[in-house]
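S.,

Sequence below, as promised.
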Amino acid sequence: MKMKMKGMGLMMIFWLLAMATVQAAALRGIVTDKITQEPLIGATVQISGTTTGAITDIDGNFELAGLRNGSYKLIVSYISYRTKTLEVTVNGMSEIKVQLDPDNQQLEEVVVVAEAKRNTENAIITQQRNSLVMQTGVSAQQITKTQDKDASEVIRRVPGISIIDEKFVMVRGLSQRYNNVWINNSAVPSSEADARAFSFDIIPSSQLDNMLVVKSPAPEYPADFSGGFILVNTKDVPNSNVFNIAVGGSINDQTHFKDFKYSKGSGTDFLGFDSGFRGLPGGINGKLNPSGNGYENNYSLMNNGLNNDWTLKNRKPIADLSLAMNFARRWVSNTGRTFAMLGALNYSNNYKTYLNMTNNMFGAYDVTHDRSNYLKQYMDDQYNHNVRLGVMLNFTYVPASGNSRYEFKNILNQLGKDRYTCREGYDAQSDKERQAEYYYQSRTTYNGQFTGKHTLSDNDKLNWSAGYSYANRNMPDRHRFTTVQDRETGLFEIENLNDVNREFSRLDEHILSGNINYQHDFDFDGFKPVLKAGAYTEYRTRTYTTRNFIYTWNAGRLPSQYAVMDIPTELMKPENYGDDKLSLIEEVNYLNNYDANNTLGAGYLGINLPFGKFNIYAGVRYEHSKMELVSNTKIYEESKTSRYYTYDDFFPSANATYRLDDKNQFRLSYGRTVNRPEFREVSTSVFYDFDLASDVQGNASLKPAYVDNIDFGYEFYPSAGELFSVSLFYKKFKDPIEWTYTLTGGTDYIYSNVNAKGADNYGVEVDIRKNLDFIGLRDFSWSFNGALIKSKVKIAEGGQEQSRPMQGQSPYLINTGVFYQNPKKGWNAAAMYNRIGKRIVGVGRSMGMEQTVNVPNSYEMPRNAIDLSVSKKFGEHFEVKFAVRDLLEEKVSYIQFQDTDNGEIEQINRSYKPGRSFNLNISYNF
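The prediction came back faster than expected:
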């Protein structure tokens, strides 16, 4: 099967390359202002009497492909400019320059059927204005202004968006679990083993064409979202042939030119994955050679191919490295067929150090002694080395008729994370501890789609897609140790067998999906309703396997001072390994492994009814979801049993728009959505999180959350590229799913998901994009988006929890920036500011025998972030970019607030300084 796939891929590549020899017939050109000579972005270029057309890009360029040699009448139009009609002769590849005269009179509506460019700010705003639903987005053009390095940085520029843990997206203050993500119109797997979330840091920004966030439900969109449905679109067919390379470097003032600790790695770490050096022989399920001491589940350290090197090395990183290559090729045959290939290769290698990182855990406040009750009081030093390799390869074919379009899109990303953490502090018994974690994780994600778009007639359109996605998370050999200081000798020693352990885990997830959508346009004497119908199917599977080992020893055969030996440099040596010395015991626990699959089938029907200035789009979606979780009932042997979660639901929605005129419109929408539990969240698996110093476990009783969503908005489009919008929203939750931590056993937290009874979430969003030439600042623009949000969780009758906001909800969000762009001189600059309000990251509670004692909630605190960037083009080929990230370098803090008789006090769970980064990038266009 693999050989067949490789053969098909090679045949396709050679076939497309062969098209380079075919005679081309196309028209390229640039549209500019006749007076200022500045390029016009978003101008419409159409061949008279046909539906063939194009939209000019960021540089005013356009291309009409699929043409035959001959003469054509070209119509060029743009808002506030006089429409121009001209005769052109096309012979092979022809080029023209079009200059438009400004016109104070308003243009009539121009309708062009073409594959419009979606990577400019004008295109995104136009798409937002004409959309039947409430949506917003960010374009590739804006990405070039901000110099964001990956999708997690890009998407925070969208109104109502905030980022948590530098990679997870929150929409309208709701946690990442309430969002859904598709790449190129296909579902993607969760990138995390323990959460329903997509990690946006895996997608380099250079692969993006645009990102859209749909905020109101509609029948054609999946019902499993409440915050936002995020559509990630990678780059599309180019207007011209392109080849570009870029080299970048970055320095962080907390990391580079300073000591950086790390352990021995594999020869392929620089590519983002482990070569097998750290893993078990034969993979996660491989069999180990037993030791000769006769004990059950006891294995030798010497003859199992394990990495037994615990020693640390030191380096001083000079700078981070980033490399990028982009190419695009387009061929047009003399019969009018268009073939295109677009590719990108991205590589980054970076370091991040967090020193003196506070990491505390608190129990219920000690009222008797009026003091905080420390369960753990630690200080961490953490050293992170991250590598990312990304590849994108897209193919497009457009027949001569232009009525169909076929695309084959592929995106592959490989991420490796090597982390060493050393920890020192006190446990609940005030014993001083030293701990360390050696952690390596690799993640692979692939997303591929084969799509078709067809214009069957003037009134009928059909599009379809077939997709396959894959994700894995491999964690080979996470090893940890804990030593405790003897109060008499002052020496740190090993106390328990569990204090030195090694863990191996692997997650694999596959998704097959299919989607078909049909649209018919009616015309009843000027009344033009639109009927939409479609179906979607998805099959998802996951396998999660983990194995845990602890060290055991025969004290009589080890050095007498073995307990106080330094573990990395003295104890973990070959002379101390053996069947009668140090060996491994596997802690068999099949409860932590699971297999799962989910089948989703959906169908929808929608109708759009235009009544003059008033338009209503309404419909209903039906979804059948059946999830099977295959887990074990016994600890020491495989004892698989299946648990099923089946849901059948109808999801109605309605989106209404009232257009006062071409620049002003109101929107009102209602829709019902759902948030279903994920595989891991209902499994019996338990995972120890070193950062949280706690176990994470599933909840088999978790129920889906149902949400009723209402939105009301006003939008004003003063001119091309400008926008003012304000929207009000209300969400009513039934059984919302929240991330909580429970105090058990007196000193330990267990993290899990639970259902609250209900919740209300409401707020207001504002989005402004404005050119500043009206105050004399030509080439300057201002962008502002912000949100004020309020929520309240409903407590079950008789419950002892206090009233609070929803977990993960931010009370306010602010994103704003000033941009300067001078295409003539090649300058581009930006100053951006971001701030989010205090939000609950974990709901705290402690279960007692007779009463529930409340442990305070943990909050992520607000911080101000300022980013600066500037770039300069030199001629047609060179461009230099410089940026400063997190200029203010404020601390990241997580705090519990405790009410006492002496007022409210702050208990710091976690805090650290992320450092200030300076980036330099040089690119060359061939």
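The two ends are 38 Å apart (CA to CA).

Coffee later?
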